[in-house]
Amino acid sequence: MRLTKTPRLTDRSPARSTARRTSGLPAATRLSALLALALLTVTPAGAQRAGMPDTTRDAVAAQSPAGVAAQAAAAAPRSGARTVQLTLKQLGAIAPFQLRGVDAINGVPFSIRADEVVTGARLKLRYTYSPALIPALSHINVMVNGEVAGTVPVPKDTAGNSLERDVPIEPRLITEFNRLNLQLIGHYTTDCEDPFHSSLWATVGNSSVLELTLTPVALANDLALLPLPFFDRRDVSRLRLPFVFAGAPSTATLEAAGTVSSWFGALAGYRGASFAATLNQVPATGNAVVFVTNEEKPAGVQVPAIGGPSIAVVPNPGDANGKLLLVMGRDSAELKTAAQALTLGARALSGQSATINKLDDVAPRVPYDAPNWIRSDRPVRFGELAEVRDLNVSGYNPDLVRVNFRLPPDLFGWRSKGIPIDLKYRYTPRPVVDKSTLNISVSSQFLRAYALRSVKNQDGRASQLLAKVLPDGSVPVDERIELPLFMLPAQSQLQFHFYYDYLKQGACKDVMLDNVKGAIDPDSTINITGLPHFIALPDLAVFGNSGFPFTRMADLSETAVILPDKPAAEDYSTYLTLMGRMGESTGYPATGVAVSGAAQVDKQAARDLLVIGTTQSQPLFTQWAERMPVMLAGNEKRFALTDLVSAVTGWWNGADGTRNRPVETRMSVSSASTDAALSAFESPLASGRSVVAVTSNAPQGLQTVTEVLLDPDRVTKVQGSLALVRGKEIDSLAAQQNYHVGKLPPWTYVQWWLSQRPLAMVLMIGGAALLLAVLMYLSLRARATRRKLGEHK
């Protein structure tokens, strides 16, 4: 890909000095920056707390591209400061912190957006501590990035009570990526003490609140910062990014927009992403993505001359701190080229704008090659799924070693032992035989445990041989584990806990030597190559969790989105958010998705169909009414019902016996309410192809469906072939399955087919027995005939 680009606006050299960081800026901004740096040398600490970043923060921020512009812009104060409150639970503390022992520590990470600086911070701590703690020797430290931000005393008169305390935090301690730790220093006696005595405890509630005052800083208009500021990986909240179109965008423009929204969805990952579509209206504040061609120019945007597929970053005319990402082309074909260049080659872009001179065709994707999914063609190393540093732990109370992975949702594990894992791990050898174990769980479900062996001290040749076998002092172990498929949802997590038994030596002899370590070897592998792909559909659970069957191809090249012939903004928003959800599942932009109107649906017969609209605007819901398990027409509603579904938990993880339920009855009701539904059925246009319909009896109901799909707690209730959404309530009403996709080996297919049809098996066994009897009869008769002929001779 060759680019024509404008001059860079910021110097991105990794070895730049303070003077060099300001030399490439306009004169006025450079003067302000130099004055600010001069003031920092004479301003007392209190003034720094009032809003100016100190030199420590500058040094850390300079290591990132965003840091350059942030430092330059921080010299001039800007309006728009905001205060955010984040509970420890929101930051990742699933349960309250249980701090036990003489020196216990636990914490959570947090981060600050590149276009904001912290001008004030405090922790609203909610905690309880043991009445046995000696106040003069015990306390709780609040630590930020390894430095003590504050110390909380533990007086006797409030021990054992639920307390609250505000702990101010110096803004200078906070950088882009941070860790907030709570540390208990506890003692219950001045004499010999047990470092793990039961009286040494404190509990910090995960409802404690970290409050941050954030002031915006302006980033440069530079493509090299992408995806900043439109997406910032430091921000843990949901990405909400408006997309701006002209009055009636073409299908090609929508395909380009789907490519971009799926890219942002992949970047957002666990945070989730929603994309509100606006027509001829740029948001008054914040950031947005704008799609422009010579025929489609949204109002309110100053568009430069378009000389080909182009990408540019310009200020939001209504917000000095906001940016607009312009995706441009002279026609829709060039617009799609610009979208592909953005999503596949963003790291090669720089300058305020760039024109794409050439973009070679991308190699076609193959099924199940999504970057976020476990590969099906070879074993996958743990080192590909997690950072090596995250596979190592230390201490007597170490955190879990976590390995996250996603599986193709159509793995067929019938009569298989499960997914094989070749596990390799190391640990500090135990001095004597004890109860130390490595506990292994899958998504918080216990799987098995391995004892951690001891290595006793040896003398003479035995100790020399031991040193040769274990030169680094650790014990290497190889084990083979089978993961049952029924324990594995689409997004799974392997959890390894090194539990070390603490040996009691007796009074005044217990000294805690925190020198134990454990590691999961990155060369450990997980292997799904032996499992075929075969699944019964419809199944909204695999759609809600993985976007299947559309995500079978990572680029969605076998997917068509069918919008109403006259779409509204709500239809566009639903489409874009669903594409972002697909990108989150696959980790790849939807460069192959096709968008069509209802009138042209026959041209998309060879694809899986994602149909969006209200019952008033989408004619396909009327044409296919007999195949759909739901019809929402104003106040008139019709449902197909089975005996299932929402009462059954966990069926979508692989308990096939509870999946399929035939329709028992159909019901029609009239009620004045806004209902929305997800329904799935086999495509009326081609056997083996799927349709997932997102429908509502009112335009605003479509958003409730996307909100459910973005909520990790509520999406688990989306099951079967029909899920009804009413506000925050989700009910799965039908679970009939009537077709299969995928392929099984011939002999496995015969076995499976017979297992599903016991009557056919009985008939086949009876037929085989009858055939065997006939063959034996004919054989014996022929033998008797030969005998008779022999006697006559």
From TrEMBL:
Q: Where is this region: Disordered?
A: 1-23
Gene Ontology annotations for the cellular component aspect, listed alphabetically = plasma membrane
What sections of the protein cross the membrane? 759-780
Per UniProt, which keywords does this protein have?
Answer: c-di-GMP, Cell inner membrane, Cell membrane, Cellulose biosynthesis, Membrane, Transmembrane, Transmembrane helix
Q: In which pathway does it act?
A: Glycan metabolism; bacterial cellulose biosynthesis
Q: Any signal peptide, and if so, which residues?
A: none
**Membrane topology value:** Single-pass membrane protein
Subunit: Tightly associated with the cellulose synthase catalytic subunit.
Protein name, as recorded: Cyclic di-GMP-binding protein
